[in-house]
Amino acid sequence: MRDEAGTLATVFVQFAVLSLFAIGGASTVVPEMQRQTVEIRGWLTDRQFSELYAIAQAAPGPDVMFVALLGHFIAGIPGAIVTTVAMCGPTGLLAFGVSLVFERFRAARLTVAIQAGLVPVTIGLIAASALIIARASDHGWSAVAVTAATFALATWTRLSPLIALAGAAALGLAGFV
């Protein structure tokens, strides 16, 4: 029981800190989640991490549900609750406080500059998350080709990424991936 409480405390602290860096959503800190849960703590393998991420992305709902899956895998239902509270609580309180300040100084040049500066940071963090997940899940030339085709489809066409998901699922069922 003591070990479980220690694990839950560690999970809470790690995800509470990550929540404060999750500018743009939970997906922006996926590389650090992977580093903490796979490389440092050894709670999951790369494959398990990427599979949990894929399940969370395929399911309807907000991206932050991924942390509940991670928490559940690490420490069961208490882990899911702790990771979700840790990921949403500090960020929610901080966002509330910042929104009060931003609302008061909405037209100030500094506020506009901060908002404009956060856009490329968020894009970079999401791109880093995509790279981590791609590296963890691409274990052969066919998987790399599927990843590249999905990237091309999502970047240069107006087609839904669900088409790529369906195509990848069909290739997986056929045994090519």
Write the layout of secondary structure elements.
Elements lengths: L1 H20 L8 H11 L5 H13 L6 H40 L4 H29 L3 H16 L4 H14 L3
**Rg, Cα atoms, Å:** 18 Å
Largest sheet: none
Q: Care to count the β-strands? A: 0
Number of helices: 7
Query: How much of the sequence is in beta strands?
Result: under 5%
Indicate the overall shape.
flat
> Would you tell me the structural class of the helices and strands?
mainly alpha
Total number of domains: 2
Note the gap between the termini. 41 Å
On the 0-100 scale, what is the average pLDDT?
86
Share of helix among residues?
over 70%
N to C succession of SSEs: HHHHHHH
Query: Which stretches are poorly predicted, pLDDT < 50 over at least 5 residues?
Result: none
Could you walk me through the main structural features you see in this protein, from its secondary elements to its overall organization?
- The chain has 177 residues and is mostly helical.
- The protein has two domains: 2-135, no CATH class; 138-177.
- The chain is 81% helix and 0% strand.
- It has seven helices and no strands.
- The longest helix is centred in the middle third of the chain and has 40 residues, at 65-104.
What is the structure about, briefly put?
It contains seven helices and no strands. It has 177 residues and is mainly alpha-helical. The N and C termini lie far apart (41 Å).
Notable traits:
177 residues; mainly alpha; 2 domains
